C-alpha cells in the first residue's frame, strides 16, 4: 500500500520510495527530514479541501507536511 492510502491515526514503516517520481530537491528534503526506507511514520492529519492536500505525518517527534504526490511514491507496511 502507498502512504497516501494510510488511514488517519495509523502507523507504518516505509518499505520503499520511488525516488524517480520526485524532483531531486524534493527527495533531498524528504531524506533530510528522515523520510526514507525503514522510517516509522504515522498519519496525523489530511487536508480537508479538494485533493486533501497536504498530509501531516509524524516522523519520530516531528510532524511534517507533505504533498499527496510524495506520499504516492512511498510504499509502506502497516504496523
Automatic annotation (TrEMBL):
It comes from the Bacteria. Signal peptide: none annotated. One of its GO terms (molecular function) is transition metal ion binding. Keywords: Iron. Residues 1-78 form the Ferrous iron transporter FeoA-like domain. This is Ferrous iron transport protein A. It comes from Tsuneonella suprasediminis.
